Amino acid sequence: MADRLRRSPQTLRVLELFLASPGSWRYGYDISRDTGVKSGTLYPILMRLEENGLLQSDWEASEAGRPPRHIYRLTRSGQRAAREYVRAHGARSAASARLAGAEG
């Protein structure tokens, strides 16, 4: 399933963040802040992950007068796929960075 995800540094950062605490729920704003991925890029990534069964999302009720917040966490299959994706694409990213450094 992880092979159907777009290979991007942003997807890699998002999955790495989720893997740091795989069972924890996260708010979109916190994911954006912690990864540096802007919301216009982040939310399509989160939607793709959810469509592929890698993420579970829910609404968390807020205090009176505040709208509910969307929360996300990896599914069990998402945890396996995320580890595979990070292992495969993270290794390629590290190798690319080393090559770019050697050329410069």
Describe this structure in words.
- This protein has four helices and three strands.
- A hairpin with an 8-residue loop joins β2 (55-60) and β3.
- Helices cover 59% and strands 13% of the residues.
What characteristics describe this protein?
alpha+beta; Arc Repressor Mutant, subunit A; 3-stranded antiparallel beta sheet; 4 helices; 59% helix; globular
Total count of helical runs of at least 4 residues: 4
The CATH homologous superfamily corresponds to Winged helix-like DNA-binding domain superfamily/Winged helix DNA-binding domain
How would you classify the quaternary structure?
single chain
Structural class: alpha+beta
If you consult CATH, what is the topology?
Arc Repressor Mutant, subunit A
Sheet bearing the most strands, described?
3 strands, antiparallel
Largest sheet, order of strands side by side? 1-3-2
**Overall pLDDT:** 86
According to DSSP, the number of beta strands is: 3
Strand fraction equals: 5-15%
List the secondary-structure elements in sequence, H or E. HEHHEEH
**CATH architecture identity:** Orthogonal Bundle
Low-confidence stretches: none
Shape: globular
Ends apart, CA distance between termini: 36 Å
- Report helical residue fraction: 55-70%
Q: What is the gyration radius calculated from CA atoms? A: 15 Å
What's the number of domains?
1
